[in-house]
Backbone:
């Protein structure tokens, strides 16, 4: 069997068109340029690389990116104040705080002080809670991009057995919720999971966001399964995922490549969320989000 490679590029192309059209609506109705602000505290290389990728995505759809920077030794007060100012700024429609923050700044500061209507990665208790309640919300862009990929390639979710590996607040856990809202039967695995291969071998779909290169090997997936890989790891100077593509490809029906799979879609979903946030802000409610 030759596995289908679920590339992100065609979804990115489609999302660009969609986002350009909805950005025009926001521009007209808000009378302002749609703007995504990214806040970088310090100079973590992964955060800087992510910001550059976001910058390219905003340019690709013709909306504005406002980079905001704080020094690595910024205090909690300064961070909170900056987040609150961005929340009040009518010229900013979405705010993303780049992770990881320096060690002395807990991520909870961001979760608690970011305006829910500008929370384009769905990290505030309001948006996370709404997602888990099945209410309209701004959804974390990485797992939403994974769902967009599955939908684009026509992979059925209803009634399917899905194993999600990794339970972070930005990928694994919200992905598990999104899949269960789509009527999949979800098993959420993590480091303490006792027998991961037993679970993955029983799954129709394996989604992995663990930050562990090669974690999902071919022998762990059932013949004909679908593998969705959110991993971004640097090994010997190369970007690799959490699945071992060489051994997965001969067994799987389909898999997302790394690079070129879930990653590029994430950034466009973030931009889409920025426009959705801007339109929701005009209405003053998250209730009518798509
Ligand atoms: P991300 O932000 O990409 O989701 P995190 O580092 O925040 O990454 O979370 C990694 C998640 O993956 C954690 O929930 C952890 O339990 C899980 N994980 C990491 N390594 C393994 C592994 N070898 N087996 C199972 N789960 C793992």
Residues:
């Amino acid at each position: 069997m030759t596995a289908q490679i679920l590339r992100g590029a065609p979804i990115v192309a489609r999302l660009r068109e969609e986002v350009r059209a909805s950005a025009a609506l926001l521009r007209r109705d808000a009378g302002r340029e749609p703007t995504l602000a990214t806040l970088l505290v310090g100079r973590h290389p992964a955060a800087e690389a992510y910001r550059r990728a976001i910058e390219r995505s905003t340019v690709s759809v013709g909306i504005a990116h406002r980079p905001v920077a704080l020094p690595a030794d910024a205090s909690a007060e300064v961070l909170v104040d900056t987040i609150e100012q961005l929340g009040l700024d009518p010229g900013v429609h979405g705010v993303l705080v780049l992770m990881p923050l320096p060690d002395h700044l807990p991520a909870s500061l961001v979760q608690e002080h970011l305006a829910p209507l500008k929370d384009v990665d769905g990290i505030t208790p309001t948006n996370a809670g709404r997602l888990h309640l099945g209410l309209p919300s701004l959804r974390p862009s990485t797992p939403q991009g994974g769902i967009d990929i599955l939908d684009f390639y026509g992979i059925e979710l209803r009634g399917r057995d899905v194993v999600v590996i990794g339970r972070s607040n930005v990928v694994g856990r919200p992905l598990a919720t999104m899949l269960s809202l789509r009527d999949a039967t979800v098993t959420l695995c993590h480091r303490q999971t006792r027998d991961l291969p037993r679970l993955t071998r029983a799954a129709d779909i394996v989604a992995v966001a663990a930050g562990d290169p090669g974690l999902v090997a071919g022998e762990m997936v059932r013949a004909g399964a679908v593998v969705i890989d959110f991993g971004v790891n640097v090994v010997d100077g190369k970007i690799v995922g959490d699945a071992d593509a060489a051994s997965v490809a001969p067994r799987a029906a389909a898999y997302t490549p790394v690079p070129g799979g879930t990653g590029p879609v994430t950034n466009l979903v973030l931009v889409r969320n920025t426009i959705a946030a801007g339109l929701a802000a005009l209405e003053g409610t998250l209730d009518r989000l798509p």
Notes: The pocket of adenosine-5'-diphosphate is lined by residues 165-168, 170-172, 189-191, 193, 196, 209-212, 215 (CB under 6 Å). The first helix runs from residue 9 to 30. The domain at 141-264 is CATH 3.40.50.720 (Rossmann fold). The mean pLDDT is 97.
